[in-house]
Amino acid sequence: MEIKRLIISIASAVSLTACASIVSDNESTTYIETEPETARCELHGQDFKRVVNTPDSIHLPAEAAPITIACVADGYKTTTEPLDTKVDGWVFGNILFGGLIGLAIDSARGAGQEYPPHVMVALEPEIFTSQADRDAWYDRRREAQEARWNNVISQAQAQCSDDDDTSCKSRVEKAQEERDEEIAELEERRLQARVAQAP
Predict the structure, then answer these.
(1) Predicted local distance difference test score (pLDDT) of residue 52
(2) Number of domains in the chain
(3) Is the peptide bond before 199 cis (omega within 30 degrees of 0)?
(4) Which domain, by its residues, includes 36?
(5) Is the domain of 157 the same as that of 113?
(6) Distance CA 1, CA 5 (A)
(7) pLDDT, tens digit, for every residue of 78-89?
(8) According to a count of CB atoms within 10 Å of the terminal CB, is the N or C end of the chain lower?
(9) What letter does residue 195 receive in the DSSP assignment?
(10) pLDDT tens-digit profile of 139-189?
(11) Are residues 76 and 137 in the same domain?
(12) Is 2 helix (H, G, I), strand (E, B) or coil?
């Protein structure tokens, strides 16, 4: 009985406030690190531009997504990484308490989305000390790219309701194509990377 009264009280309070969007925020914090440790990074998104010196944390508005991080440091090439949002747990609170109206309001202003809490940007050296050093660096980059894309593709596949969901399958295939293109571009950069001449 006490639990039932509590549920009724919560529902009444939500109704009285007449607030469709109850708990979402349209900003999240991301900690940016680089390799090397110190670099200057410019972040560009939708009507959004910031500069940070790593390592540092930054508050990012969801409506700016997707964001591109471009980092520079002495002895390294300008290196970019994508940064995008995902649905956070509060969106389910809006479905429960605010219904689809609350969800729509939050989506329109970028709420219900959050960025990864941590990003690592590995800057590409202008010249590698050896071919082995070059391959080790690119192998790490490829592993990171494959892990990121595997996560994206897995999430896309999880949204496919059945085998006849052609639109969902198209999104999965598109993600796979973009993954393959990005990895092919990385391998092309590997071949073009400068390696110090052996003495």
Answers:
(1) 95
(2) 2
(3) no
(4) 17-125
(5) no
(6) 6
(7) 999 888 776 433
(8) C
(9) B
(10) 999 998 899 888 888 888 887 777 677 888 888 888 899 999 999 999 999
(11) no
(12) helix
For residue 165, the SS3 value is coil
Residue 10 resides in a domain: no
Exposed/middle/buried for 22, CB within 10 Å: 0-12, 13-18, 19+?
A: middle
122 HSE (CA, 13 A, CB side)? 11
Q: What is the pLDDT of residue 100?
A: 35
Rg of the chain taking only CA atoms, in angstroms: 22
Q: pLDDT at residue 22 above 50?
A: no
Residue 45's domain is classified under what CATH number?
2.60.40
Strand runs (DSSP E) across the chain, as ranges? 27-35, 40-45, 48-53, 56-61, 67-72, 79-83, 86-87, 113-114, 118-122
Rounded Cα distance between 113 and 107, Å, is 8
Same domain, 56 and 121: yes
